[in-house]
Design a protein that fits this description.
The chain is of the alpha+beta class. It contains 5 helices and 3 strands; from the N terminus they run αβββαααα. α1 crosses α2 and α2 packs across α5.
Length: 130
């Protein structure tokens, strides 16, 4: 496990209170909602692609713990400008490393919920509801 620096704990709490990209997109190409029944975290992600297939906008909605909300905030920033293939190549380890704090086995579902949601969105691009 990594040594936990207090500044990274502060970053998690900051992102929980001030999430990045927490918005409803008016126009999107795919969306998906996931739920973690073990803790109640819920995330919906909406993605808009440009004509070359790169993510030009992404938004998320939902509620959850500080870890899930910080993780989805960091993830939505990380994937902007990337193609579906680049996003699909992200690993669980890379996602957890974005948080820069130790994540227990029980909290890993919280940390990975955003990644799981995006990957399901790509598996079902016809989820467009607008």
């Amino acid at each position: 496990m990594k040594q936990t620096d207090p500044i990274y704990k502060e970053m998690i709490l900051y992102l929980y209170k001030n999430p990045l990209n927490k918005k409803q997109l008016a126009d999107f190409d795919c969306s998906h909602k996931e739920y973690n029944p073990s803790c109640g975290d819920e995330i919906e992600i909406m993605i808009k692609f440009d004509e070359s297939g790169k993510i030009i906008d992404i938004g998320h909605q939902g509620e959850g713990c500080a870890v899930s909300q910080a993780a989805v905030s960091l993830l939505t920033e990380e994937v902007k400008g990337k193609s579906k293939e680049e996003v699909m190549s992200l690993t669980e380890e890379e996602m957890i490393n974005m948080l820069e704090i130790p994540i227990s086995h029980t909290r890993s579902k919280c940390a990975l919920l955003g990644l799981k949601t995006i990957l399901f969105c790509f598996d079902r691009p016809s989820n467009k509801t607008n």
